[in-house]
Amino acid sequence: MGLIINLNGKFVRKEKAVVSVFDHGLLYGDGVFEGIRSYNGRVFKLDEHIERLYTSAKAITMTVPVSKEKMKAEIIATIRRNKLKDSYIRVVVTRGAGDLGLNPLKCPKAFYFIIAASITLYPEKFYKEGLAVICASTRRNIPEAVNPMIKSLNYLNNILAKLEANNAEVLEAIMLNREGYVAECTGDNIFIIKNGELITPPTYIGALEGITRDAVIKLARELGYKTSEKPFTMVDMYIADECFLTGTAAEVIPVINIDTRHIGNGKPGPITRKLIEAYREMTGTQGTEIYAS
Ligand code: PXG
Question: How far is the CA of 206 from the centre of ligand 1 (A)?
Fold first, then answer.
């Protein structure tokens, strides 16, 4: 069976799931989105993703055309319709169709779609051996322009950095903010560990308030580690004991090499390994039931 897409509340086959060429999501990147996971029949952190989606929409004064409760129900229904247990869910809300000018007032109604697909996992090798990454020369958008706290459809900034990662034949790139402080990666948040303390950049530096980031901070505190949100530079990264990335798709993934320099002893560190385990335990046991009742 092919994928069934939820197109503005209607189920359609993948081939029929098309949007207008006048949609401002396409014309201008005017819209917001979420990437969500389900594990073994449960949607992980659904409420948190819904909250962030509606907050991002509010930040760009866009009214999501359905209520939060309805959106949750539509997400669950879409996963059920595709008979998935482990999935990656993309929820997109666009400004909708307007005219060729950029004025959102010409777009009478926002438009949404939901894709629930089976997930291609990162190979286990990366969790066991760690990732090599680079620091991109492309700087993260400044918060006074397009604030990285808004999960908008405008990802060109991140894509430019991703191209640098591709050129360097690594999977991720670290992005600095305008002042040179570490902000985040193209699709992941970043942590370093120094002397047993977890440190991640504060969101005002220019990073998304990642849902995995928040979950990992809480987990680390429960495990008795000190955590802090404070600015740091690439030098702090190079001399860190451990480093890892967090994201819905990547989960918790160790970084063992940055700009061809080894981090720590060049192997995933003990605290990172503990957090990977604790995060897996959490994703395997928590979440909104998809097939209940
Ligand atoms: N920073 C950015 C810029 C992101 O896009 C994260 C951090 C991690 O946030 P969560 O809430 O997922 O912990 C993201 C989200 C992909 C892909 O295909 C990844 C994201 C978005 C879109 C696509 O890898 N990551």
Answer: 14
Q: Is 87 helix (H, G, I), strand (E, B) or coil?
A: strand
> Does 107 share its domain with 160?
no
Catalytic annotation on 267? Answer: no
In the reported structure, the alpha carbon of residue 293 is separated from the centroid of ligand 1 by a whole-number distance in angstroms of 32
What mean pLDDT is predicted for residues 202-229? 98
Tokens of 3: 């994928």
**Catalytic-labelled residue, pool 16, 58, 83, 151:** 151
Residues 249 and 156 in one domain: yes
Please give the tally of structural domains in the chain. Answer: 2
pTM: 0.97
Residue 52 and residue 132 in one domain: no
Strands (E), the chain: 4-7, 10-13, 31-39, 42-43, 87-94, 111-118, 131-135, 172-176, 182-185, 189-194, 197-200, 226-229, 242-247, 251-258, 261-262, 288-289
Q: What is the pLDDT of residue 141?
A: 97
Residues 139 and 278 in one domain: yes
Any bridge partners for residue 288, and if so which? 43
**Can you tell me the distance from the alpha carbon of 53 to that of 75, in angstroms, rounded to the nearest whole number?**
13
Verify that 11 and 108 share a domain, yes or no. yes
Q: What is the pLDDT of residues 35-89, one digit of tens each?
A: 999 999 999 999 999 999 999 999 999 999 999 999 999 999 999 999 999 999 9
Domain that holds residue 93: 4-117
* Ligand 1 pocket, mutate which of 155, 248, 253, 275 (most atoms under 8 A from CB): 248
Report how far residue 147's alpha carbon sits from residue 59's, in angstroms, rounded to the nearest whole number: 9
Mean local confidence (pLDDT), 114-141: 95
Same domain, 19 and 150: no
What pLDDT band is residue 151 in, cutting at 50, 70 and 90?
Answer: very high
